[in-house]
Amino acid sequence: MEKNAKIYVAGHRGLAGSAILRLLQDSGYGNILVRTHTELDLCDQGAVRCFFEQERPDYVFLAAGRVGGIQANIESPAPFLYENVMMQGNVIHEAYLSGVRKMLILGSSCIYPRECPQPMREEYLMDGKLEPTNEGYALSKIVALKMGEYYNRQYGFNAISIMPCNLYGHGDSFDPLHSHVLSATVRKFVDAVENKSDRVVMWGTGNARREFLHADDMAAAALYMMDHYEGETFVNVGCGVDYSIRELAEKVSQHVGFSGRIEWDATKPDGMMRKCLDVSRMRALGFAPRISIDEGIEQVIAEYKEYRKSNANK
Fold first, then answer.
1. Most buried pick, 35, 63, 180, 191, via CB within 10 A?
2. Annotated catalytic residue, options 137, 168, 229, 304
3. What confidence tier does 71 reach under pLDDT thresholds 50, 70, 90?
């Protein structure tokens, strides 16, 4: 991408989009387009069409979407499917019509089947049933990557997709309903230490395994792929190493200095039991993440403590 190119980041306030925006700014790209939801409702096809006709961006990073943790996905599968399909479909279609030179679609590792062989290779997509607890969200991400693939094949539209594993990092939500697993875990343990509690209750059995990627590493991968990858097939983006939720809880407890009991509520769902990506294609393209899980946990702890402090002063 040229430094003076007009670049639209859809979803710039979210965890993923804000990381992409920061990296673009830090890398010297000065012609960046952003719109808040109030300024542009991506579910409104007419509004999206007007935006693209007026602004004519050269490049698009599609990171917009409704996101949330396991409880939010269980309680609201309809809006997770509807809103994401509408947003993604409108942006992809109007980007194509307006002559966008290249587009990156950001997906999620939840697209893979519940019983997917591990590690999960790109060719395993749609080889089995999805995990029920986030099926609506997963379906929407499959629609987006397939739409990019079909527009690439049929119309020659230069759309690529990356599928990152569980993201965390600067700008993540600490809301119990909408936060991702790592930020939610940090909140539990920091609160326990601050409140002098002798126990923390975690959802599920602790046996489910997850792979974690810092949002800044995902952003670096997004910019790298925009410059170095052409092709219909999506690319997994991750570290290629996973941890059980029990191991994650123990890591976080050590970092915050919690010495009490960790209890597991097995009446709550684990979700998909394992999600570890095969990142062979990513590495073959020349990209590798840099931020370790321990370094990342320290960053999230520091950010949550600042979040607690700022909210206590309100």
1. 63
2. 137
3. confident
